[in-house]
Every structure is written in C-alpha cells, then in structure tokens.
Amino acid sequence: MESIYVLLRNLSLDDLCEWAGAKILSRAKSYIRNVRNLSLLEDGTLAAWVSGSEVYATSVCLNDEGDFDYSCTCPYEQGPCKHTVAVVLSAVEQVKRKLTIPRLKEDDDLYHTLFDESEDDYAENDDWRDEDEEPVLVSEPVMKGKSGNLRVKKILEGMEKHNLIKLILEFTVLYPEIERGILERDQLALGQVDKIVSSLRREIRAVTSEHAWQNSWKGGGNLPDYSHVQSQLQALLSSGHADEVIDLGEELWTRGNEQVEQSNDGGETAIEIAACLEIVLQAVPHSSMDPAEQLLWVIDWSLADEYALLDSVGMILESTLYSRDHWNTVAEVLEARLKSMKMTSAASFSESHRRNNVLNMLVDAFVKSGNPEKIIPQLEKESDACQCYGKLVDTLLASGEIAKGRQWCIRGFERTVEKYQGIASDLQGRLRKLAENEKNYDLVAAYRAEDFFESVSRSSYIELRTAAEKANVWRAVRECVLSYLKTGKRPEQVDGGKNSHWPLTKPEVMYPRGKSVAIDGKFPDLNTLIDIAILEERFDDVVVFYQDLRKIKRWGWEIDKSVARAVVKSHPQISLDIWRAIVNSLIGQVKPKAYEEAAIYLRLMCKAYQENNRKPEWQQLLGELRREHKAKRRLMEVLDGLSGRNSII
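Structure (tokenized):
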C-alpha cells in the first residue's frame, strides 16, 4: 500500500499526460469534483464512484512493472478514461493535503461492483418477481459495473416476458434516455435513417446554440452536453451510414466552431465537439467519395481548423489506403489552388498564412505522390509570396545543394530583413550554421558579433566570446566590444572605418546600420558593462561602473542586487550599503509581505557583518531599526525572528 502513496506524492501532470494523453487529462481535471467514495484496498488499489452521464465504478492500481492498471465501467475503450484519471487526481489531492484515504470494505457496493464476480449471493429467488408485486427499483448505482452486468443479465434472464416489459417501461418513465435509445435502435433496425438524421440535426442545432461558459471559482456555468450526439454519430457509422455522418459532421463543424469562438469554458466544449468530429473523420474512408476527394475533404477541414478540433487528421493523411495516384490528384488540385490565389505584397497575415498552409500540404502531396523533384521548384516559385526561405534552404541542404542553399539564405535575408526580421534572423542563423559545419570559425565569430551589436546582452557576449576564442581573435574582439559599450561606436565607425583592431571578416549578410542602442538608450552602456565585469570577475571595475550608474536617475533594484551579490567579498561595504537601502525601501511600504522580503536582505547583511568580524555593527543596526519603527508590530516580529535565528553573539 505504501508504494501507491509514494507514487502519488511524486506524480506530476507530465506523468499523467504521458499515460492518458493531454485531451483525457484536460477532461479529467473537471471531473475531480465528481469523484465519490474514494477508497483504498489493502493491496494499494484505488477505487471510487465517478459520476458523469451515468455513475461509473473505477479502480486504479500498480502492476508488477510499476505502471498503472485500471478498470472503469464506462464504455470508453481506447485507453485510460477521464474517470480513471480523475480518481488518480483526487487521490493526489488527498495525499497532498495529508489526508488518509479510507479503506474500502468488502461488503461495500463499490467493492462488489468492481471485484466480486461470484454469483453465490444472487441465487435464484423469485419472491421479488411475483407478478402481483411492484418491481424493486434500485436507487444506488450497484448495477453499472462489469460484474454488475453479469448480475443484471442473470436477473433479466429469469424474468417472465411481461414482467420484463413492465420493468423496462418503468425505467423509460424514470429515465427518458432509455426510451429514446430504444426508439432510435428500432429506427436503425427498420432502416429509418432519415428520421434519425433529421432528429440528430435538430439536436446539433439546439446544442450548438447554447452559450458555453464556466466559472471555476464559483462553480457555476453551462457546458453543452454532446454525449448523445456522439453516441448517435457512432451508431450511424457502425450501421454503415458514413455519408450521413459526414453530412451531419459538416453542420456540427460550422456551428461548433462558432460556439467555441464565443465560449468561455476553459476549452471544455471544444473537447466535446472534437470527440464528435473524431467519429466524423473515421467515417471519411468509408464514405462514397472517391479516395482523392476524401483526402481533399480532410485537407480542407484541417486548413480551416482554428481551434484544434481535429486531432486525427494526421492518421487519415498518413493512411496506406491512399495510393500515389490518389496523392497525385490531390497535388494537382492544390497546385491549381495556389495558382488561383492572388500574390500581392499587401497580402494580410491571414491570407499569407493560408497560402503557406496550402503550400505545405502541396509539398507533402509531392512526397506522397512520388514526385519529390517538384518540391524545390515549387518552393522557389513561392519563396517571396510565402517567405518560405527557411523550408527551401533546408530542402536544398538536405539534397546536398550547399552552394544553392547559401545563395537562398542570402537572398531571403535581403528580402526579409526590413519587414520580417524574425525570418531574416533565422536565415542568418542558417548561414552561421553552414560556417560552423565548414569550420570557418572566423565567419562564425563575425555572425556572433552581428548578433551582439544587434541585441546587446550577457548571453550574446558569451556566444561571441566562445566563437572568437575558436577563431583565436578574442582579445582584439573583446577590446573593440568593450569600447563600443563605452562609446556607442561600432568597430567600422572608428577612425572612419579604418579600424585595424577589428580582426573579423565581413559576414555575408548584415543588419542595416541604424543608431547604436544601449540597454537604457544611452552610452556608456553601464548596465551591460557591469554585467560583463561581474561575468569576468573584475570587481573593481564593477564598483567603478556602479558608482557612475548611481549618478543617473533610474528605477528598480535589479542591477543593485546583482552588484551586491557579486562584490560582497571584495567590497563588502558596497554590498551592505545596497542592502540597507533596499531594506529601508521595503520597510517604507508598511506591508507585512514587504517586511518578510526585507528580512532576506537583513540576513545577507548579518552574514556579511559576521564574515568581516563586525558583529557590533549588526547589533547596532537591529537596535536602530527597533527604535525607528517600534510602532510597526509585524516588523518587530520579523526582527525578533532574525535575532533568534541569526544571532552572531
């Protein structure tokens, strides 16, 4: 039993996602509140009732390999269901709250439903089935388990026909869904599909018209119930009516997308609609459409899928049911679509995005139709309209056309650097990678220098240093870089561009030269100079730059905190002065939370005083704070705690 507690204490959402999948995990979170009678068996098996459209008996245990084994009386069979995962989540909550999960008793209905498969206690007893006696209606959900089905089967088999009909009619009054299910099954059996489709279409229109919302804080909301739509779509598909499923699916798709767009329910309605559309996608290969039409139908839906409602599109597009000839037809249609789309420089983002998606589908179709030689010419043709330079370059490099790939990197950079700087940066990175592969370290360093001057930071400085060291030019590069941070003049701006100290070659592409920009907009860039001096452990320089920075009016304490941590051993008084200023600022907020934060820096001061044999000054500081702020009761409590924990006497 202890092993299940250990597992629950260490279980993460990533573990559950890997086990059950993101969709099931997301659904399970909303079912935690539906878990009832959470219990534990002696062997560590978790058990509970979980209410949904019905009440299900669920159990989870660890097998010999340390993985989850599970059982649930719901009809879901594709893996762990949301009820199973909800039980685990509920158990994790109990463990985290340090509550003991109660033991499940063997005489409990839940135990019998899950584990008791014997029929000894259900020997034939006809007394309750006397035809003059009203049938017993069971209020507890003891008949819903797998073993419960065996008991129900035995009971029903022993009933007279007229009593069985009477019992079913009783239940149709209590549970209208039973009546609806019987009538719908009869309609299918009689081939009255039109009636089912018409009724289901009305239901789809009704349920998609509901406002979907949920307030997780107050527990209110309205979540449309798609369970019957899902079961009816599955019934139609199982009965061989794939075309009807697709026709209904198209209406659900249109109206469902509108509902999801207007919903505010944490994605719950989208999940339910996606489960219905999963069945629609399963119907596609069984429809009367020819194979190429099926592929294009799925592709059109996937291109329009803004809310990720179609999880299984990939399974259809990768299916072996479709031959090269089918994909060749698809490629011809997609190619014609691209030609019909207008190519304008003023195209909106949505237009460019759609064109790009069609292009990606076409490239995939070329591969699956056995025509990969068409990919590069198509990408070249679309390069300017779709800015697909990265994909084109990768394809060229994969085919061994290194020189051509480099040319397209340069061309793409020049055509995107003004308007699409993210694409340009990506292409520049590819050029740098090519230089790395060719061990042209001088060129790699030149690109890293471009990155540094374009975006000055500690990380870009480190990357430049690494590259320049490989090229054996770091000393000269460092001198120029530090000069730039002090003056704002890039190497090519020094001495009219005749700076002989800059050792790096000119890269193949360069960002446009604008005004040099420091972190705070001015030079010298003291923030970066301090950061680099800390990195290189030049603590005297840190103090010099920091003293210059203090003369500038500014906001925030981040750079001060970095300096204090860095120079506490070399220049302890600088650190103490910074921490005292931060403490004064926090106390000035007159908030208990700020007092607790001030204690962090007071502890740092205590340690610094102790390490520098200045104990009396620490005691003097505490006394000053007590006298100055004696009216602040919560602060006095914080100072009392400091005196007890960090006493240096």
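The two ends are 49 Å apart (CA to CA). Residues 568-645 form one domain.
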